Amino acid sequence: MSAPRAPESLFAALQGALLECDADQKCARVHALKAAFDGGQLSLDDDTPAEPIVACGRPALPELVAPNKLRKRRPGSPDGHAALLHAIAHIEFNAINLALDCAYRFRALPEAFYHGWVRVAAEEATHFGLLRERLRALGSDYGRFAAHNGLWEMTVKTGDDPLARMALVPRVLEARGLDATPPIMNKLRHVGDAATLAVLDIILRDEIGHVALGDHWFRYFCAQQGLAPEATYLALIDQFNAPWPKPPLNLSARRTAGFSDAELAVLSEPRKAKHLD
After folding, report:
1. CA–CA gap between residue 106 and residue 99 (Å, rounded)
2. CA–CA separation, 116 and 42 (whole Å)
3. Is residue 73 a contact partner of residue 84, using CB atoms and an 8 Å limit?
4. Please, what sign has the CA dihedral across residues 51, 54, 60, 62?
5. Which residues, in sequence order, are bridge partners of residue 147?
6. Which terminus of the chain faces fewer neighbouring Cβ atoms within 10 Å, N or C?
């Protein structure tokens, strides 16, 4: 009788999904990866070091341009409506890669860290799929409009430091989505797009959990290093020149995700060169 087959490496599966370029195939691989990891078919027992972070798998389109080169996204016209949904879909596609990279890159951490970020990757894949369905219903598709690469660029900058990654990707960039989503929903409500509003309700609910997961692990890494979380957060924003929140902040969602009232008071002020003076 042959010996039971050893589980495959979670990190190898994560790398394969991360490098997958076809958007639909990437989503399928992420969902399969999560099911396998939850079922005990993928192992953390792998001493192979993470590959240097350079690029992630993405389709040839959309074309990536500087943020100031992007067209205005006003949903009052069919083209503007599709462009707005495309911008959100692009954020969700990038978020799949961000979550995959979190789980792939940072090693020798508690198993809960990997289950958390694999779950996030699967939820982001679901979000992307829902938005792509809405784009296709509008006669468009992902890749039609230009987009920018800011989310992935911050992932590269924080590739050597899980503390900075948790601070600047979930707690800065993804938290901006908590603030931006309600105004976007108001625009879509005005044009009567109830189907996309239902999708954004799901996304907002899940994204609060994603920011909360980043908040949990940010505080975990701060505790390991004996750092004060909120002062460290502001210092990292300055160090990496990360974007400051644009008002109005979604205070309720941010509180649920782990931000304190004192922290929100600072973030609600106009940005200063140094926050800790």
Report:
1. 11
2. 15
3. yes
4. positive
5. 64
6. N
Q: Can you tell me the distance from the alpha carbon of 86 to that of 63, in angstroms, rounded to the nearest whole number?
A: 12
The CB-side HSE value for 255 (13 A sphere, CA atoms) comes to 6
- Angle (deg, nearest 10), helices 111-137 and 23-38: 150
Place of tokens 């926050």: 275
CA 275, CA 157: separation in Å to the nearest integer? 21
The structural domains of the chain, with segments of one domain joined by +, span 8-45+59-267
Q: Is 117:57 a contact under the CB 8 Å cutoff? A: no
pTM (2 decimals)?
0.94
Helix/strand/coil for 8? strand
In tens, the pLDDT along 28-55 reads: 999 999 999 999 999 999 989 999 877 8
Total residue count of the chain as it appears in this document = 277
Q: Which CATH architecture has domain 8-45+59-267?
A: Up-down Bundle (1.20)
Strands (E), the chain: 8-9, 42-43
Instruction: For residues 132 and 136, give the distance between their C-alpha atoms in angstroms, rounded to a whole number.
Output: 6
pLDDT one-digit tens code per residue, 40-97: 999 999 989 999 877 899 999 999 998 877 767 678 788 999 999 999 999 999 999 9
How far is it, in rounded angstroms, from Cα 206 to Cα 123?
7
- Cis? peptide before 243, omega within 30° of 0: no
